[in-house]
């Protein structure tokens, strides 16, 4: 009953569909499985289901998203009519819990610094030095402090503490439309149904055909682990009803998700390139507007195998800087 239901109200832009309606009673529209569904908000630009995809059924049971079904403009109008002082306040563009603290300062405070090499991936030349690979994200352009660019971060080697950069980040031979995922969280508590060949939701019929006809004689897309995918698999992704987000924002891709035999991991093929795929980030999956859950983008099957060479100019500059630095106290 509504009078005995206690929930935490959150201002996230998301919505919930409950068995029996918004208050969870036993109604005629109750879902057959009795599960709470997380669905996209009424404002696609503000939608925050990407951040909520790691929640469980028990957590969703105790939550309510009162504004999730409304566009931001309508919420502001309601606030103005109610005379709320923050009705016209500018939207926050940063990480809310940091306040005025810069992200780089926050990272330095909690993770510290460990200088390492910045290396051009095509040549192996050491171009500069960074404060720690964790300060940099794939696709990053600003904040590298390098001349002769524009330079983009295209990879990181955590073991060697190397940040790899390139000038040709958007080159056609650097496809970024396929990746592996692991550490799944399915909001319903169960993985979605899959086809005989392991494709999520049974939306992989065309991908099944692609597996059978991609010409390599096996059931897999061998190019997927380095970011590429065969034309047949991309074509299958382009008509799939499964969607994927690889970061917060409005952009969703059609995709296919093929589970490994043990169900603990899988391979995703997007219908278009994404230039910011990064290991450790979440890939969030959708059936229409329903958020099904998430997986973690895994490291590439093979590490970046680049022999690092020292650029003489860079080395001389660093030696000069070291010699001019005041003695440590």
Quick structural gist:
This protein has helices at residues 49-52, 57-61, 72-81, 103-111, 205-213, 231-238, 312-324, and strands spanning 8-9, 15-17, 37-39, 63-64, 116-120, 125-130, 152-157, 162-166, 178-186, 242-245, 253-259, 265-270, 282-287, 290-297, 309-310. It is α+β, with helices and mostly antiparallel strands and 329 residues long.
Overview of this protein structure:
The protein has seven helices and 15 strands. The chain has helices spanning 49-52, 57-61, 72-81, 103-111, 205-213, 231-238, 312-324, and strands spanning 8-9, 15-17, 37-39, 63-64, 116-120, 125-130, 152-157, 162-166, 178-186, 242-245, 253-259, 265-270, 282-287, 290-297, 309-310. The protein has a six-stranded antiparallel β-barrel with strand order 9-12-11-10-13-14. A five-stranded mixed beta sheet has the order 7-8-5-6-15. The chain has a two-stranded parallel sheet with strand order 1-4. A hairpin with a 4-residue loop joins β5 (116-120) and β6. α5 runs antiparallel to α6. The longest helix has 13 residues, at 312-324.
């Amino acid at each position: 009953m509504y009078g005995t239901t206690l929930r935490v109200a959150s201002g996230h832009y998301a919505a919930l569909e409950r068995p029996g309606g918004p208050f969870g009673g036993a109604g005629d529209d109750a879902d057959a499985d009795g599960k709470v569904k997380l669905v996209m908000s009424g404002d696609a630009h503000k939608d925050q289901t990407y951040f909520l995809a790691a929640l469980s059924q028990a957590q969703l049971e105790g939550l309510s998203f009162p504004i999730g079904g409304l566009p931001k403009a309508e919420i502001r109008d309601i606030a103005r009519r109610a005379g709320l002082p923050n009705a016209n306040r500018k939207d926050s563009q940063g990480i809310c819990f940091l306040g005025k603290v810069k992200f780089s300062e926050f990272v330095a405070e909690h993770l510290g610094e460990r200088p390492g090499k910045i290396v051009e991936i095509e040549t192996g030349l050491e171009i500069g030095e960074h404060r720690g690979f964790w300060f940099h994200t794939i696709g990053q352009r600003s904040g590298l402090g390098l001349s002769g660019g524009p330079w983009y971060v295209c990879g990181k080697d955590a073991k060697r503490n190397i940040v790899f950069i390139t000038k040709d980040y958007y080159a056609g031979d650097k496809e970024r439309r396929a990746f592996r995922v692991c550490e799944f969280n399915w909001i319903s508590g169960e993985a979605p149904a899959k086809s005989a060949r392991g494709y999520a939701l049974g939306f992989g019929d065309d991908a099944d055909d692609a597996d059978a006809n991609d010409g390599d004689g096996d059931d897999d897309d061998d190019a997927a682990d380095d970011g590429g995918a065969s034309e047949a698999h991309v074509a299958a992704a382009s008509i799939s009803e499964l969607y994927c987000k690889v970061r917060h924002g409005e952009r969703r891709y059609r995709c296919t998700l093929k589970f490994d035999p043990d169900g603990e991991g899988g391979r995703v093929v997007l219908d278009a390139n994404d230039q910011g795929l990064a290991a450790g980030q979440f890939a969030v999956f959708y059936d229409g507007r329903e958020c099904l859950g998430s997986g973690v983008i895994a490291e590439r099957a093979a590490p970046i195998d680049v022999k690092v060479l020292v650029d003489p100019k860079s080395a001389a500059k660093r030696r000069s800087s070291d010699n001019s630095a005041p003695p440590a106290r």
